[in-house]
Design a protein that fits this description.
about 300 residues; alpha+beta; Thiol Ester Dehydrase, Chain A; Nonspecific Lipid-transfer Protein, Chain A; 2 domains; seven-stranded antiparallel sheet; five-stranded mixed sheet; 6 helices; 12 strands; about 25% strand
Length: about 300
């Protein structure tokens, strides 16, 4: 079980449950992280003008969202459409599940209890948290209420499954929408990059293709954290979010340029023609590392 209290702890359909006792939001002294995974996502994408563009904040164990449903989310006159609420709840809980497991998480089932009419143009205070976890299964809860807490509009429970990062990437590649091809501008690639660094590359790494241990430093302008260190060699691969002055090769650039490099689709001349990009040290070390990565297949 996760350490966040979740009120009713039964299965789906047992009522709205209770949100964690969080106290005033100003009491949270830690870093607030915005949860999003892809700029064009219908739910959280900041670059999708037709999407929900939800600004979900992670506060060290739970997520919050302040949201005002627009007029075009109307079902009955002045009332928010139930489908809009379902999409909103699914997106928030999916982001919470993915943040909890550090990998892509796909919806298996969600259930929404509609407790009071939510009105267009009226603010919703939404809280979501993890209720329980299994090997791949993550159960989340969500509660939407008025800013003062006097009215609970809806509550939801979601069951999500952690998806192997390799399969997530394979599906993208099959649609011609791999991370080296899509447009990451107008959004934040940090979540996808972290998934890759914390297991995704290792799933597609062939250590037998490495002649010796290589230390690869990354400085990516459009992800957080910006600096990473990769250790790759015949004994395997590891990556961590650290800055280091000791490396064999250091790449500075954007997330998309890095994706093209490890897929060997970015010519050296094109890369070095960008004044914001640089490769310092042993270029051959970078080439050998890229040759040991075969995205879309596991080792």
């Amino acid at each position: 079980m996760a350490g966040i209290p979740a009120g009713n702890a039964g299965g789906m359909g047992d009522g709205p449950g209770h949100a964690p006792q969080l106290g005033p939001m100003s009491d949270w002294a830690g870093e607030i992280e915005t949860l999003q995974h892809y700029p064009q996502c219908f739910g959280c994408g900041t670059a999708n003008e037709r999407g929900l563009r939800l600004a979900v904040e992670w506060r060290g164990g739970w997520a919050t969202l302040e949201h005002v449903p627009p007029v075009d989310a109307e079902g009955g006159p002045g009332i928010v459409h139930g489908g809009y609420i379902g999409a909103l709840a699914d997106e928030v809980m999916a982001l919470v599940a993915a943040r909890h497991c550090g990998a892509p998480a796909m919806s298996r089932r969600i259930e929404v209890d509609f407790l009071a009419p939510a009105l267009v143009g009226s603010p919703l205070h939404i809280t979501s948290w993890v209720q329980e976890t299994g090997t791949r299964r993550i159960v989340t809860r969500l509660r939407a209420e008025s800013p003062g807490g006097s009215t609970v509009y809806f509550a939801a429970t979601g069951v999500f499954l952690q998806v192997p990062r390799r399969l997530w990437t394979e599906a993208m590649e099959q649609q011609g929408r791999g991370p080296d091809k899509v447009d990451w501008s107008g959004g934040d690639a940090s979540t996808y990059h972290t998934w890759q660094m914390r297991g995704g590359l290792r799933e597609c790494f062939f250590p037998g293709r490495m002649s010796r241990h290589r230390r690869i430093a990354l400085v990516l302008a459009d992800v957080r954290p910006r600096e990473w260190m990769i250790h790759a060699g015949p004994d395997g691969l590891s990556a961590s979010a650290v800055a280091s002055e000791t490396w064999d090769v250091r790449f500075t650039g954007t997330f998309r340029q890095w994706q093209r490099l490890i897929r060997q689709t970015l010519p050296r001349e094109e890369l070095l023609g960008d004044p914001a990009a640089a490769v310092e040290g042993d270029w051959d070390a970078l080439v050998e590392f890229a040759g040991a990565i075969q995205l879309g297949r596991s080792s």
